[in-house]
Design goal:
It is a single chain. The chain is of the alpha+beta class and 211 residues long. The chain contains 7 helices and 13 strands. The strands form 3 sheets. The protein has a 6-stranded mixed sheet with strand order 6-7-8-9-12-13. Strands 1-2-3-4-5 form a 5-stranded mixed sheet, with helices on one face. It is globular. The structure holds zinc ion (2 copies). Residues 14, 16, 61, 63-64, 153, 193-194 line the site of one zinc ion.
């Protein structure tokens, strides 16, 4: 099985966990959610020695997607994800950025993702789950053979994504977590969009939002 490596790079004033994920066998990588601070992201890429072959987006919020257009140009790689339901968020990144005082460019993914799709990072294949609720187009990337997932802002250690932003839906978010994520198994470890990661089992047992 190809060995997975990941480095988390907190970016933007929101301390979003931009993740550099690579396949140790092929040294091919994906940058997940380049929200900004691209110099730090580029430095992590250089230190990893891996070649980035794509940018993946878990959803269209500014702290996850604001740097995607610029990094795509700099690296000459495609952007894949999120689900098309977040198109309006990606289209309006410049306006949203002005509200927060954060430079942001609109980005149109080269490939929208949908439930059941697969994305490739080197020799590793990730499944795609559409998990709306935090945003309409949020997706989760799963690697079941290696028992880990990248969940964006769907689920956090001890919390869940906020649902008070446009397009948020608390019921849908809880449903997605309980019906799509937790059944994958207690031993699945995850990297999330903010703060430390956890496992689905730990959250099933102790996350107050999942009682
Ligand atoms: Zn978000
Ligand atoms: Zn976020």
């Amino acid at each position: 099985m190809p060995k997975a490596r990941a480095i988390v790079i907190p970016v933007t004033p929101f301390q979003q966990n931009c993740t550099l994920l690579w396949c140790e066998d092929t040294k091919r990588a994906a940058v997940i959610d380049p929200g900004g601070d691209l110099n730090r992201v580029k430095q992590a890429i250089a230190e990893s020695g891996a070649a980035v072959e794509r940018i993946l987006l878990t959803h269209g919020h500014i702290d996850h997607a604001a740097g995607a257009a610029e990094l795509k140009e700099a690296l000459g790689v495609p952007v894949e994800g999120p689900h098309r339901a977040d198109q309006i968020l990606l289209d309006h990144l410049p306006e949203t950025g002005r509200g927060y005082g954060i430079p942001a460019r609109a980005v149109t993914p080269d490939r929208w993702l949908a439930e059941g799709d697969e994305v490739q990072v080197g020799d590793m294949t990730f499944g795609v789950l559409h998990c709306p609720g935090h945003s309409p187009g949020s997706v989760v990337f799963t690697n079941l053979p290696q028992r880990f997932a990248i969940v964006g802002d769907v689920l956090f250690q001890g919390s869940i994504g906020r649902t008070d932003l446009p397009g948020g839906d608390h019921e849908a978010l809880i449903r997605a977590i309980k019906e799509k994520l937790l059944p994958l198994g207690d031993d699945i470890a995850f990297i999330c969009g903010h703060g430390p990661g956890s496992t689905f089992g730990e959250e099933r047992r102790s996350n107050p939002f999942l009682r």
